[in-house]
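Fold Annotation — chain and its backbone

Fields — amino acid sequence, structure tokens

___
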Amino acid sequence: MKKAGILNRHLSGALALLGHTDLVAVCDAGLPIPEGPVVVDLAFRAGVPSFAAVLEGLLDELVVEAATAAAEVRQANPEVSALLDGFFPAPGLELVPHEEFKARTRGARLVVRTGESRPYANVLLRCGVPF
């Protein structure tokens, strides 16, 4: 068994298969999940695991070259908005209308569902390379 890093075998395996420019959607419990991508559902109960904890763990494991979130996060969820700004300082976070964000999730190769139950706790990560 792994001693450190991501222990969930489904998530660890899915991350190992990602390549440059692949999209990873990290989402709250309410975002509609599109057909097609691998889905790793980590939701245990409302708020567990949190969006923040899952995102922080993923960023420890992935090289991310771009991030996209719904523009509505600024008004509807200031806490998550501040969290995203901390992880992706300007101009690192692209904001798009929520309907466009949902459409873009259809291009994700992996969807990681958290137990977050607050609105707009979602982000699309575009994988980069470590060189």
